[in-house]
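Wed. Picked up where I left off yesterday with SDR family oxidoreductase. The coffee machine is broken again, so keeping this brief.
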Amino acid sequence: MNMEQKPISELINLSGKNAIVTGGAVGIGLGIVSRLAEAGANVLIADLDEKEGEKSTDGKKVKFLKTDVSQEEEVKKMIETVAKEFGGLDIIVNNAGIYPQKPVSHMTKEDFDKVMSVNLRSVFLCTREASKQMISQGHGGRIINITSIDALHPSMIGLAHYDASKHGVWGFTKNSALELAEHKIWVNAIAPGGIATPGVAKMSPSGGDVKKNIEAFMAKIPMRRMGEPDDIGKVALFLASDLASYMTGSQIVVDGGVLLS
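Structure written out below (tokens, as returned):
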């Protein structure tokens, strides 16, 4: 079968595409927003951090909506907003997540439920509502879920609830990919390793045990560096573009080789 190959510039061109990035105000999310917008997409940043989110908008191609993605009505409003502001939805990156460190012995039910609601329930809600919009449009779409290497192997003590949520996101990614394939909606995941973000910096107070954990983690990375948000942004662009036209239900590990150690 002969198929005419698109030039690379066309494969990676997202002009006319409309995207949502949850948790897009800072860190990994902002790295993803930057690359999608650079490739031509209109991007709605959905985040609780209004101050940082507004900094990243340009009033035209990149807009901000204060959103708690763990809440059903706010997710529905998010989808309605992207359809109103940009005319539709083609790409959603489910990136919002929290990772408070606490050992199971000191973890409360509320601690566990909070992490599950933000990290896992949000992916369900966003996938359900985004796919409804994409199906109604009739030309497919891309759903990209940010998991973690912790979906494959634990990184440190104190993140049991986080690890459970990320295992859940990986399982949800595979099953929803199976369900949505008939609608030409491809669902994939990215599993970051250690990425230098404001959130990670806050995890490592001077002299604390977390700092020692981060240093021990760094020593395991064959590339001998933490990743940057753009390392994830570039892979998200790949999955959002036609470079990944024959991928669904996959998870790309972006960890500097740490899982090799």
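Quick read: The first strand starts at residue 18 and ends at 22.
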